[in-house]
Amino acid sequence: MKRRILLAVLACAAVAATACSSDEPAGDLPDGAELLADAAASTAEIRSAHFTLTVNGEVPGLDVRSADGDLTREGGDGGAARGTVSMTLMGSLFEGEFVLVGDTAWIKGPTGDFQELPAAMVANLYDPAAILDPERGVANVLSNVREPVTEGAEDLDGVATYRVKGTVARDVISTLVPGLDSDVDVTFWLRRDEGHQPVKASVAVPADGDPTVDVTLSDVGKQVDITPPS
Description:
Keywords: Cell membrane, Lipoprotein, Membrane, Signal. The chain is mainly beta. It is built from 4 helices and 12 strands, in the order βαββββββααββαβββ. The chain has a single domain (19-209), classed as outer membrane lipoprotein receptor (LolB), chain A, CATH 2.50.20.20.
């Protein structure tokens, strides 16, 4: 059984990054479909990264409020992840640490030791390692954006990016953002240098209050060693 654990991502966490738009004429911007194709190919090669996640507003079916941590595709089937999370767990607010290795998860609250999650709980939660999975994660989403448009060039927290917006089918993004009942608009900020790796993604959820799920990736390729807690 595939673990579905703790966080919902992209799937991706939203730094409070400051974005500055450029005055680059629309006709000089690269084609959105070509940018996304490059981004999908380069993202599929990512083996490790740091991620942050923020849920802005109320997203039906999504219990995670925020998360921050490291991801790696090493460490067993499905990879591994570790970090901190704020979420609703069994009806109560949980804020603490998590570790995921293979098909096993551990959580630790403000006090006490790490506790292994029961199998039934694991089956009903989310897997942050899916973010780097080429077949389920961000790379797959980038490959399946419909009608992409490059909206502008921006500096995002000191990184030069292109902003590309399009629509993604519910079935494509549901692994990263569970509970959706319709297609969604997604905005990507892609690096302007070679490979156009994604820096940030923002999923606009069609629900009351216009909530969004925002994710950022950083420290791509850094050394990440994640082992089960002792």
